Amino acid sequence: MRTSRTTLTEFLRNELKGHANASDLTELLEEIARVVTRISHLVARGGIDDITGKLQSENVQGEVQMKLDVVTNDLFIDAFRQSGIVAGIASEEMDSPLSFPEGRDGKFLVVFDPLDGSSNVPVNVSIGSIFSILGAPNGRPPEDNDYLQPGSSQLASGYAIYGPSTMLVYTAGHGTHGFTLDSATETFFLTHANLRIPDTTSEFAINSSNARFWEVPVQQYVEDCIAGSEGVRERDFNMRWVGSMVADVHRILMRGGVYLYPRDNKKPIKAGRLRLMYEANPMSFVVEQAGGKGSTGREQIMGVVPQLVHQRVPVIMGSSQEVSLIERYHRDFDSGEAEKGYSPLFGERSLFHKMQ
Ligand code: AHM
Ligand code: MG
Questions:
Q1: Which residues keep their CB under 5 angstroms from ion ligand 2?
Q2: Atom number in ligand 1 closest to CA 127
Q3: What is the total count of domains within the chain?
Q4: Which of 157, 160, 161, 264 could form a disulfide with 213 if both were Cys (CB 3.0 to 4.6 A apart)?
């Protein structure tokens, strides 16, 4: 048995040295780790405590809430409020941001999804929590507009995955690091320092039941993957879909791949299913710090300036070369090349090969 593993606390103290607000940021990440530990214990009890079902209520997005959505949201709210270092929060489960008088001088705003993939709760499949830490305004309480910062302004972000083991994965802009919870001692140990996503992959993750609603470039990309060794990709692809973004992206951090929740015309009012500020941005930061890419298909996710806290965005993230290739499908389509029946990507194998 190994006993000399680095704990999260030890790692943070070292890694965040030199970071502006290092001690507050360390404290905040430790606070998040404590909440994640509690949630891990809660979800591990499954149906025993009667908390795995649905509520009658809907959240601001019109989605039916699970009991655990609300319980986990409350745990985060209480922890952030009591920390005294968080000026305000916004959450998937709250209509609008909430300011904390207790964190009046707090340096941070936290935007989070307390329980991502919560439809997987009743079936005992992996779920997660996602957080994004932003700077708070100086010397005054935050206003709603203060939250509307692009992902490139994040100070730190990360997620917890409640799977066969519970892990906390975060970045503060110096690589992406993963910690595994020892539930007996309630300690997170460093198990995955400096995660790196392979640049290339033969694995994609998408909910194909939406295929008829996707834009042409995504339809074309998936078609080419499915054609495998008989198509332009000249190799077979594998497909995975857990239905929890955290679990699907975590797999990609571990072994490469690409995750897509693209724009579709199922509900034209929505730019995609996932939310920019507390799903796409924090996961993009983690992915990009591990050498991957996060894109809408047409621009970098972290470059999008939010107009609304609950704004949705198309999401394509993972292995960098594969994401770049999908961006190229979009560019070719937008430029009209694909429509004319000729495209460097779809029509000319030699150029296509250069991108592999
Ligand atoms: P949620 O935050 O309400 O759980 O919704 C987001 C989830 C993602 O975790 C997941 O990738 C996606 O929605 C699943 O969508 P689908 O129902 O199309 O499989
Ligand atoms: Mg979510």
A1: 113, 116
A2: 9
A3: 2
A4: 264
